[in-house]
Design goal:
By secondary structure, the protein is an alpha+beta fold. The chain is about 40% helix and about 20% strand.
């Protein structure tokens, strides 16, 4: 399933593509800390160039630690206009590791080790960060070496100040070797993604850099990076970043969430890729990646997911129905969400949905524990739902009220990019589990949502198990536990009763009135909430029973039962049950055993549901 993030990036690169001489060749790559990669637009290879600066700094920190590196290179942000060569005039110490003088100083700190010389170690680190072997040609190294005039000036200046313990020209060739490495925006996003995950490669899972090293590198990229080259960076982006004018490439790290790189050829007034910077600002705004907005870990909103048979509705089912639900359980999955939902969380959830089985037909999303959803995240969720419906999946949303679903649809109405139909609600006509085509449905009760999904599964795969006529009431779960003769005898003792829409069948607190089997229609069971508010618990459909719970409530009905539409039931009244015990004791015993079996079945389903929700 294509994720909303990929579609968003594709639209963005298309919008910045331009035509003819104005073509920007925009390329965008994003790597989430969980390893998901998104690539869109131009993937032209460019030299690593100035983006090698964090690499030199990282390996120096790995070898010597933050204290010793800090003694020889500062961490002071200094405006870097076209790579000015600046050092402390008294000590010859560079102001920070990102400028040319700082690159010279940190590269000089890296020594040969383990049979590898300086450039081999640096290229090995780069290969580990990118997840592939990197090689450069002698021609590319010579070209890069001839072009690094400012770096050469810095190296000889530091040598003249006795602040460099290496031979400048040999060191410059080593620096040029790394700077000449060919990379794409996808490579750079992987590098940034490794920094975002504290030094662990997001795809391979290998630890490439220590957490202390990453902290030092990101601190410098944050305080001395793009802020020195773009006056609005802190306000518009605010994340650690660094750029290279070679290819107009910019690399950004969103710690704990993602790494990103963008590239475009035409420069802006600061020498950065104009389209790349414009697209970056749009992504930061659209995905809420500014430090003031990005919150929580990417998977913080994901509680658990499970097949429908692992936490069913709690409705008592007969053996044949239970077998069918288990056989086709992979067609219905439940995702439970909680906490704050932002861009990173939506992407993580979309990735979870991509891992669901190919047999999936219904996706039930339980958002009852969600505390807040950002506006950009709502649009991503809407795109996610719309794409699922387009691919033929049912989308079932569960929440305690309609607040979030209303805000989701309001965001859709304001956007011209998302086409999502209004969800059907169980109060409205048309919420039919047997309906053709994918359904977008909202329920304010988990049990009712799962019941609908179970009925949907049965309607698709075993429609013969759905009661549709009065005669089908004979397959009620209660009667399934009895012999055929006992079932027929018990049915002959049952009264038929008909109710109109909204009519109360049993009121909470009433004495036990008998066991009701639904022949046709739907009934609603509800309890009393705080402040007198009625809490709807579940819906029961043909073939299901109610009334027996009063036997465990000192003879009192625990919930109110009312008809939703015309309802026909068959009732085994309390008086008949007393007569049954006196006249047919063996049948009464079989009935009590059936009731006990149903109670244990319901308890087992409740335990499984509770366990699944706590995974």
């Amino acid at each position: 399933m294509t994720t909303p993030v990929q579609k968003h990036l594709d639209r963005l690169t298309s919008a910045h593509a331009g035509e003819g001489d104005e073509a920007s060749g925009l390329g965008v790559a994003m790597v989430m800390v969980a390893g998901h990669r998104y690539v869109s637009g131009d993937l032209a290879s460019v030299p690593l160039a100035a983006l090698a600066s964090p690499l030199f700094h990282a390996l120096a920190l790995e070898d010597l630690g933050t204290v010793r590196v800090g003694e020889r290179v500062g961490a002071d942000p200094v405006r870097d206009l076209r790579h000015r060569v600046e050092v402390d005039p008294a000590t010859g110490r560079p102001h920070n590791p990102l400028q040319n003088a700082g690159v010279v100083a940190t590269a000089a700190m890296v020594k040969g080790r383990g049979g590898r010389d300086r450039p081999a170690r640096l290229m090995q680190l780069l290969s580990s960060l990118l997840g592939r072997e990197i090689a450069v040609t002698d021609t590319a190294v010579r070209t890069e070496n001839r072009a690094q005039h400012h770096t050469r000036s810095a190296a000889w200046l530091m040598k003249s100040l006795d602040a460099l313990d290496a031979e400048p020209e040999a060191l410059l060739e080593d620096i040029a070797t790394v700077r000449a490495a060919p990379v794409t925006v996808e490579d750079l996003a992987l590098l940034a993604g490794t920094l975002a995950q504290g030094g662990v490669h997001p795809v391979t899972g290998d630890r490439v850099l220590s957490e202390e090293t990453v902290r030092g590198v990101l601190s410098v990229m944050d305080s001395c990076g793009m802020d020195t080259r773009d006056a609005r960076w802190a306000y518009d982006v605010g994340q650690p970043g660094w750029a290279s004018p070679r290819g107009g490439t910019v690399m950004v790290v969103v710690p704990g969430h993602l790494g990103m790189a963008l590239q475009s050829a035409t420069p802006d007034e600061n020498g950065n890729g104009a389209a790349a910077m414009a697209a970056l600002r749009a992504i930061v705004e659209d995905f809420e990646l500014h430090p003031s907005a990005v919150t929580g870990s990417p998977r913080a909103a994901f509680r658990t997911h499970y097949r429908i048979d692992q936490a069913p509705s709690g409705t008592v089912r007969n053996a044949a129905v239970l077998e069918a639900l288990g056989a086709h359980a992979d067609t219905v999955h439940v995702l439970e969400l909680g906490g704050h939902v932002g861009f990173s969380q939506v992407d993580a959830l979309a990735q979870v949905s991509r891992s669901l089985p190919d047999e999936l037909e219904t996706l039930l999303v339980d958002v009852r524990s969600v505390s807040s959803v950002s506006r950009p995240a709502r649009l991503l969720v809407a795109r996610w739902f719309a794409y699922a419906l387009e691919k033929g999946l049912d989308v079932v949303v569960v929440d305690r009220d309609t607040t979030e679903i209303d805000e989701l649809m309001a965001a859709v109405e304001e956007s011209v990019e998302v086409d999502l139909p209004e969800p059907l609600q169980d109060e409205a006509e048309g919420v039919d589990p047997t309906a053709e085509g994918p359904q977008f449905v909202f329920f304010d009760s988990r049990s009712r949502a799962v019941q609908w999904s179970e009925q949907r599964l049965l309607a698709r795969h075993t429609p013969e198990l759905l009661p549709s006529t009065p005669e089908d009431a004979a397959v009620a779960p209660l009667l399934q536990h009895l012999s055929a003769d006992d079932a027929r005898l018990l049915e002959s003792m049952m009264d038929e009763r008909v109710y109109t829409d909204g009519q109360i069948i049993r009121r909470a607190g009433q004495p036990f009135g008998g066991i009701y089997v639904i022949v046709s229609g739907t009934v609603e069971l509800s309890g009393q909430g705080t402040g007198g508010r009625r809490l709807r618990r579940s819906l029961l459909t043909p073939g299901m029973t109610f009334g027996e719970m009063a036997l465990g409530q000192p003879g009192r009905q625990p919930s109110t039962v009312r008809a939703r539409g015309p309802v026909t039931t068959r009732v085994l009244t309390a008086q008949v049950m007393v007569a049954l015990q006196e006249g047919f004791p063996q049948l009464a015993l079989a009935l009590w055993e059936a009731l006990a079996r149903d109670a244990f079945t319901a308890l087992g389903q409740l335990i499984r549901e509770t366990g699944a929700m706590q995974d």
